[in-house]
Amino acid sequence: MTPEKEPVRVYLLLGSNMGDRRRNLSIAVSLLVTELAPWLFSDVRESQVLETEPFGMPQGTAPFMNQAVSFETTVPPEDLLKVCKWVEHKLGRPDHGPEYDESGRRIYHSRIIDIDIALYGDRKIDTPQLTVPHPQIEEREYAKRLLNEII
């Protein structure tokens, strides 16, 4: 990893709708902070935890607990994504890529933890692995609400 020259303010969105959802969020934040500690340059800001209805999932799917976290880091976005995926895997999320139906719409599944990079400074990133700002922030009112708490 080649660190960024200057720390960048990063915003993550976390969600869980399986098991002890609050605990899953808490463990995920702890693992992120521990793994990123050598490259953190500020305190970690955490929003409230908010229960939300599942987005784009079948009726009857368990609600999510969601939270936003923010910190300054020199970890490049691609490496930050790897750390997020590692935390998801560590908490038991299967490592399969996105699935789509016949019409090309994304199929969402319940998950023990989901960690998205919502914002990475003021950068715009569009690669096959990562899109920042997160493309669904605008359509998810709760995401804007949680992010605004810590901006």
TrEMBL record:
Domain 7,8-dihydro-6-hydroxymethylpterin-pyrophosphokinase: 11-150
Domain of life: Bacteria
Pathway where it operates: Cofactor biosynthesis; tetrahydrofolate biosynthesis; 2-amino-4-hydroxy-6-hydroxymethyl-7,8-dihydropteridine diphosphate from 7,8-dihydroneopterin triphosphate: step 4/4
Zinc recorded as keyword: no
Leading EC class: transferase
MF-aspect GO terms: 2-amino-4-hydroxy-6-hydroxymethyldihydropteridine diphosphokinase activity; ATP binding; kinase activity
InterPro entries linked to this entry: Hppk (IPR000550), Hppk_sf (IPR035907)
Coiled coil segments of this chain: none
Enzyme nomenclature, EC number: 2.7.6.3
UniProt KW keywords: ATP-binding, Folate biosynthesis, Kinase, Nucleotide-binding, Transferase
Family: Belongs to the HPPK family.
Function text: Catalyzes the transfer of pyrophosphate from adenosine triphosphate (ATP) to 6-hydroxymethyl-7,8-dihydropterin, an enzymatic step in folate biosynthesis pathway.
Record protein name field: 2-amino-4-hydroxy-6-hydroxymethyldihydropteridine pyrophosphokinase
Naturally occurring in which organism (per UniProt): Candidatus Coprenecus stercoravium
Source taxonomy: Bacteria, Pseudomonadati, Bacteroidota, Bacteroidia, Bacteroidales
Gene (name only): folK
